[in-house]
Amino acid sequence: MSTTGNLPTKSPSDSVTEMVQVVLPNDANPLGFILGGTVMHLIDIAGVIAGHRHTRSLLVTAAVDGLEFLHPIKVGDLIILQARVTCTFQTSFEVSVEVLSEEILTGAQRVTSRAFLTFVAVDADGRPVPVPPLLAETAKDKRLMKEAHRRRKARLETKLQRRNEFDTRH
Fold first, then answer.
1. Is 21 exposed, middle or buried (0-12, 13-18, 19+ CB in 10 A)?
2. The model scores a pTM over 0.85
């Protein structure tokens, strides 16, 4: 792998993370489906693990984009979270997390949620630090990276707009 500055360029495959656990009654709502907040918590954990594998640094979650709940996951099913870094910037980066359910008796799987998380790498004092660049190796990697740049641009424009609206009200 090549290096940029002192940081080695990494592949998206270097960050691939998969978490699997069974959905227990304690994780569920009265209808017997996993709580959305529990899914969001697990998405954040899977995302940060992928991020640690890429940066080997401390991280803070900066944003969650495109979180969708497509299908419920019932008690007794497995919840599978697959995460990987999709794009890097100077001190931040994006991670894609896809959530699947798996019926334990049939093995049938389906995508139930997906989200894109932005993390910032920080030092022990909470100051941002550079992240290793990402080398898009496949057509899918390149597509995900291009989409990540679009999401980042839209997020930063929205942030600026909200800041301007706040400033005009106060």
1. exposed
2. yes
